[in-house]
Specification:
The chain is mainly α. It is built from five helices and three strands, in the order βααββααα. It has a three-stranded antiparallel beta sheet. It starts with 5 loop residues before the first strand and ends with a helix.
């Protein structure tokens, strides 16, 4: 088992997070490392959870949503967890689709204003 555990510092390096972030995830009970004195060690379960946490954050889920989702496995098993995951994913896909549409509209507006600015600048450079 010792070979599968990694230290606090190694966990930070592996996931490119600050010590403060890792301690916060422990504080809000997303992670539960094994403690030996002041040292913390992370096993495969914690490494897998950290992977899921960071993936969830990248997809736009809140830490509380991720925490609640992780708790489902412990209390109700993987079938319920998958069902909740699908519902969460559907909701977040709709949010991301709206953000993409908003960004495309903003880009289109900016490009149009840039073209107007270029035309105005060209008109200023014309003699007469």
């Amino acid at each position: 088992m010792t070979d599968q555990r990694i230290s606090f510092k190694e966990m930070c390096a592996r996931f490119d997070v600050t010590p403060r972030t890792l301690r916060y995830y422990e504080y809000i009970e997303l992670l539960s490392p094994h403690k030996e004195g002041r040292a913390r060690f992370y096993g495969p379960r914690e490494v897998a959870r950290m992977t899921l946490i960071l993936r969830g954050r990248r997809f736009g889920f809140s830490l509380e949503e991720i925490r609640q989702w992780l708790l489902i496995y412990d209390k109700q098993g993987s079938r319920e967890q998958y069902q909740v995951w699908i519902a969460m994913a559907d909701r977040q896909l709709a949010v991301l689709d709206q953000q993409i549409a908003d960004l495309q509209a903003a880009r289109s507006d900016l490009a149009q204003l840039r073209e107007t600015g270029m035309a105005e600048l060209a008109a200023m450079d014309r003699p007469g």
